[in-house]
Amino acid sequence: MEKIGLQPFMQGIYKLEETQNLRCTMLGIGPMSENLIEAVFLLAKQKDFPVMFIASRNQVDADEFGGGYVCSWNQDTFRRDIAKIAEKCGYQGLYYLCRDHGGPWQRDKERNDKLPVREAMELGKRSYLYDLKAGFDLLHIDPTKIPDVGEVAPMDMVLDLTMELIEYCEEQRKALGLPPVAYEVGTEETNGGLTSVESYNEFINTLVARLKAEGLPTPTFIVGQTGTLTRLTENVGHFNADQAVALSKAARVHGVGLKEHNGDYLSPFILELHPALGITATNVAPEYGVVETQTLLRLSQIEQWLYDRKMIAGQSQFYQVFARASIESQRWRKWMVGQVRDYTVDQVLADQELAAQVVEICGHYTFNDPAVKAEIAKMYANLESVGLNPHRIVINAVMKSIERYVDAFNLEGITSKVRAVLGQG
């Protein structure tokens, strides 16, 4: 079937809203593992919705920057492997490769090294060029993690850097003879400065005016702070429905959709409100990694139970290897709260309860660790020896986690409806 670009697809969404009073919220999915991608495609095949894979620079990036922690993917291998998984699943629907939080200082090392503006911008541009050459459909332009500028990055500086990056990407896209790409701007981070309706309005009004004056495309999405915040395995923010409505209206004046980040772990009530509030798209990532981790840990418990009763001949060292790799990765610092963020690895290892919590939260960062993969393979083989299908158990668990968003966001059947309204049915 003919692919529809992301921006035209969103125009189809708006047309459905205007002509049929049909509202939905698009779902951006963090590509946490190959299992997650398989689960998404199987569900999308069943429920007929488009898939947006939102990859951060830490997850997927060029080899010159160290690649990504997810499957060691760079942009080309990311695209290649996703296509292979789609073919394996028999999925022929729409899917979009999206850069989440692209640009300067968006790799942890660049931020920690406090790179100067020009150096960080050069690295961000090079990363975008790899995105473009790999056929990414959406680029999130986010130059807000500027070191040493205080709690909130100056809006004028963010606007200038955003303009420079979009102009660069458009120049490169045209030089390469590539089709149009969609853009996302803004950030949910407090240092981005878009935490109020007033600052959001000022940013989008000024940016759109400057883009039009330079003949550059209007963004497809602008990120706004709806009050969501993911920590541990819950959403610890305070969702503000009234603010979401105000932000949505401000964006739609310019034909731009409100994008929400950190949609993980929200209640069914809040999720089901999303389409009515005008939230055009929501990103969810850590929750899916945690669900896969929880399922693997449960399988490990099943393996232990079977081994204790001599129902299987061998036992993997999955938990021991997985736990140590997860804790030593130190990725958990981002998701923890309070003093625990400053604990040493040895302190976490010595606290059995805390160690278990850390493994659950950030185990997904180690799925690609060779030692972890080897132990998963051993555990699967042990479980398969008594007739279980551990791979299917993992896929089903992740599918259920994704499905609650698809159902709440009114996405089932939306691809066919958009094709019809655009005259491609």
UniProtKB/TrEMBL annotation:
Highest taxon listed in the record's lineage: Bacteria
Alphabetized Pfam families for the sequence: GatZ_KbaZ-like
GO biological-process terms attached to the record: carbohydrate metabolic process
InterPro entries: Aldolase_TIM, GatZ/KbaZ-like
Protein name: Class II D-tagatose-bisphosphate aldolase, non-catalytic subunit
Organism this protein belongs to: Candidatus Anaerotruncus excrementipullorum
